[in-house]
Amino acid sequence: MTNRTLSQLVTYWRNLLQLHDWNFLVKVVSEDELPEGAETCCSAQLDAKTATLFFGANHDDEARKAQVIHECLHVACTDLRESLLRSTRGYLPHGVRNTLKCELLHQEEMLVLRLERAFMEVTQ
Q: Cα(68)–Cα(99) distance, rounded to whole angstroms?
């Protein structure tokens, strides 16, 4: 998949998920620039409504599509996750908030994986 096609696919899913107020930057990087064991990752800044999606270089089109869906779904979850974490500031001790954040990220990943599989199935 070309970088242009990858960017078009990200734009398609951004629009489908109604993330119109978010700016997306797409970067294809070497595998060693990604977190250990990851094929893709994203970094989302809620205040700036900016997301950078990082993709490893060597994947077939079907795998790439699943990765795009997966990372766009993470961006879609950002508002919910960050809103909840912000609402606990000042009410929960730091250690409890860190535990909460870890659990939120775990549950988000489980939800994103289920939705990714569903979207892949209905778009076949």
A: 28
Rounded (to 5) percent helix, strand, coil in the chain: 60, 15, 25
All residues at 6 or more sequence positions from 112 whose CB lies less than 8 Å from its CB, including other chains: 70, 73, 74, 77
pLDDT digits (tens, 9 = 90+) for 10-59: 999 999 999 999 999 999 998 888 998 889 999 999 999 999 999 998 77
How many structural domains compose the chain? 1
**Both tokens assigned to 71:** 């990372």
Q: What's the one-letter identity of residue 8?
A: Q
Q: Which of 80, 101, 88, 104 is nearest to 19 (CA)?
A: 80
Task: Give the model's pLDDT for residue 43.
Answer: 94
**13: domain range?**
3-122
Could you tell me the CATH number of the domain that includes residue 57? 3.30.2010
CA distances from 8 to 3, 11, 22, 90 (A): 9, 5, 15, 42
